[in-house]
């Protein structure tokens, strides 16, 4: 602790500003941004030092209860970065952007997704909740619009009428989800981050993200669970 944290340069500040305005940034974009910020600010740039660059920013964000966190997309396994406010829960964070009714719809959607078998909730199931909200009943048309906004704001993502949590949401709300859904929320056995869309071992119950499953069983003729060594009965992607 006697060692001073590395100096925060304009390059660090510029990087942080872009990350905050993006909400979430893909790894390849973050690497380009890192290079651009260093070159613009004429400071030393090393292509393999993005994590160190981010650590410096994080040491300055610590007193503000903020942090740049890295997470992986459950879809393709690619790295993403998001700025997380550690002092607020998901609800207080979103409360400034959405009405009470919209937040209730979001929480109920989150319930459906997390409690589902595969990490998805159908639009039909979500829209059926719209007229059961405690705060104020919502018409289906209205609920459809709200879901659209959640997708645009990168809290949810949608594929063929099925909704799941966006990577941004998973990175920012990991702690909230782990503490509020203790019985069902699990971390991936391989990358140790929260797994919403996952495959689960029928024998010992561990879960793994689909991209992690793909990576782990690549080239194995008989897939076996990394924990209990029993045969992995799910169809590997």
UniProtKB/TrEMBL annotation:
Claim: Ion transport is one of the keywords in the record: no
One GO term describing the cellular component: nucleus
Record-level GO BP terms: double-strand break repair via homologous recombination
Keywords of this entry: Chromosome, DNA damage, DNA recombination, DNA repair, Metal-binding, Nucleus, Telomere, Transferase, Ubl conjugation pathway, Zinc, Zinc-finger
Coiled coil: none
EC number(s) reported in the record: 2.3.2.27
Domain of life of the source: Eukaryota
Domain (RING-type) ranges: 188-229
Primary localization: nucleus
Catalytic activity: S-ubiquitinyl-[E2 ubiquitin-conjugating enzyme]-L-cysteine + [acceptor protein]-L-lysine = [E2 ubiquitin-conjugating enzyme]-L-cysteine + N(6)-ubiquitinyl-[acceptor protein]-L-lysine
Compartments in which it is found: Chromosome, Telomere; Nucleus
GO molecular function: ubiquitin protein ligase activity; zinc ion binding
Family: Belongs to the NSE1 family.
Subunit structure: Component of the Smc5-Smc6 complex.
UniProt function note: RING-type zinc finger-containing E3 ubiquitin ligase that assembles with melanoma antigen protein (MAGE) to catalyze the direct transfer of ubiquitin from E2 ubiquitin-conjugating enzyme to a specific substrate. Involved in maintenance of genome integrity, DNA damage response and DNA repair.
Identification of the protein by name: Non-structural maintenance of chromosomes element 1 homolog
Native source organism of the sequence: Sylvia atricapilla (blackcap)
């Amino acid at each position: 602790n006697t060692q001073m944290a590395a100096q925060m340069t304009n390059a660090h500040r510029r990087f942080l500003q872009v990350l905050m305005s993006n909400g979430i940034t893909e790894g390849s974009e973050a690497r380009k941004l890192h290079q651009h910020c260093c070159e613009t600010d004429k400071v030393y740039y090393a292509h393999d030092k993005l994590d160190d660059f981010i650590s410096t920013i994080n040491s300055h964000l610590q007193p503000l209860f903020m942090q740049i966190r890295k997470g992986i997309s459950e879809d393709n396994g690619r790295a993403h970065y998001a700025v997380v406010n550690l002092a607020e829960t998901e609800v207080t964070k979103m409360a400034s952007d959405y009405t009470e009714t919209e937040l209730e719809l979001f929480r109920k959607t989150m319930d459906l997704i997390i409690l589902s078998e595969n990490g998805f909730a159908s639009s039909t199931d979500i829209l059926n909740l719209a007229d059961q909200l405690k705060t104020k009943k919502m018409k289906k048309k209205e609920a459809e619009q709200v879901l659209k906004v959640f997708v645009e704001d990168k809290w949810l993502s949608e594929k063929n009428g099925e909704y799941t949590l966006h990577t941004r949401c998973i990175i920012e709300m990991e702690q909230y989800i782990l503490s509020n859904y203790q019985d069902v929320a699990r971390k991936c056995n391989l990358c140790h981050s929260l797994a919403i869309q996952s495959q689960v071992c029928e024998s010992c119950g561990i879960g793994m993200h689909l991209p992690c499953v793909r990576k782990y069983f690549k080239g194995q003729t008989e897939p076996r669970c990394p924990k209990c060594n029993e045969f992995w009965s799910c169809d590997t992607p």
